[in-house]
């Protein structure tokens, strides 16, 4: 995902963030700060979770969208606003516009998850489905802005948006004044930049670490080059931070104020999402789980107390199922195995009996009896199993071989 840059490179100050906080009073929630004993043990330092997944619309995006739209001139409000997004930004713009009495149009890809499309409409926006990816929706939105005079609301590359996101940083300092490290997911950089402006002005000793998905990490090469550069074909399950190019305005702030930008892989994102659900009882989308993924991948590397910003919780149920299975597999708690057996009455029942003895929970069974690859007396079975960890996976495979089954994969 990539976006055109904002026309203004005006910097953002602590006064801007404080002004945004006053503007958002009664609009955005002061989201909870939850301690995590499990993560604290893993990291070796106190860890707290800043729950922006519990914000109105399910993410931090409402903050910046509201401040940006509230700052429009009367004639600009009268022209309406337009945005392009597949999820969180769409919902933030829709609700902010409704609260301010401004007409909003949001272009979304045709393949956007139905729950996100429905939520954006329910928040009051006119939704137009255009293109297969967000870049195509973006092109349609910018053309609509040219034709109608509607104001394009950028998801991250505008000072007002960054100031709104920076209110998260003020809340962190109020809720956890002893914080030493803040870890936050980075896409275009608006949230990290806003937090950095607020926190570094008041507590320059606090370390701020940005986290990107390895398959969509535009910031490391951009920081090395000293200017925003694009990543071709960014790929990650974490749609919320799947951005091909840093914004000009946030890039300058991140380069100056953010101490480090690291990357995490898809397995680490899946495991982090699973941990948030199981141990913290919080529904978090992959982008929102990226700070937790960084903590798990580098235990001992973060001085505590640590605050991990869970930036959003808008995860499509279909994706959630896939990610949870992926996370279980990454932890050795999910085993997919394909094997052959003699095709005779009771053969499948005997196989399931062997798995029961091995204490493996069968989630799914696929039984193929007719295939050119199979002999006349053969059948192939694919099993999806829930296990207790890597050692148990090895035990299950050993038990199947000992029982005389040919394990193919």
Automatic annotation (TrEMBL):
Keywords: Allosteric enzyme, Lyase, Pyridoxal phosphate. Pathway: Amino-acid degradation; L-threonine degradation via propanoate pathway; propanoate from L-threonine: step 1/4. CDD domains: ACT_ThrD-II-like, Thr-dehyd. The keyword Chloroplast does not apply. Residues 336-409 form the ACT domain. Transmembrane segments: none annotated. InterPro entries: ACT_dom, ACT_ThrD-II-like, Ser/Thr_Dehydratase, Ser/Thr_deHydtase_PyrdxlP-BS, Thr_deHydtase_catblc, TrpB-like_PALP, TrpB-like_PALP_sf. GO terms for biological process: isoleucine biosynthetic process; L-serine catabolic process; L-threonine catabolic process. GO terms for molecular function: L-serine ammonia-lyase activity; pyridoxal phosphate binding; threonine deaminase activity. Its EC number is 4.3.1.19. Belongs to the serine/threonine dehydratase family. In the native structure, TdcB is in a dimeric form, whereas in the TdcB-AMP complex, it exists in a tetrameric form (dimer of dimers). This is L-threonine dehydratase catabolic TdcB. It comes from Streptomyces pilosus.
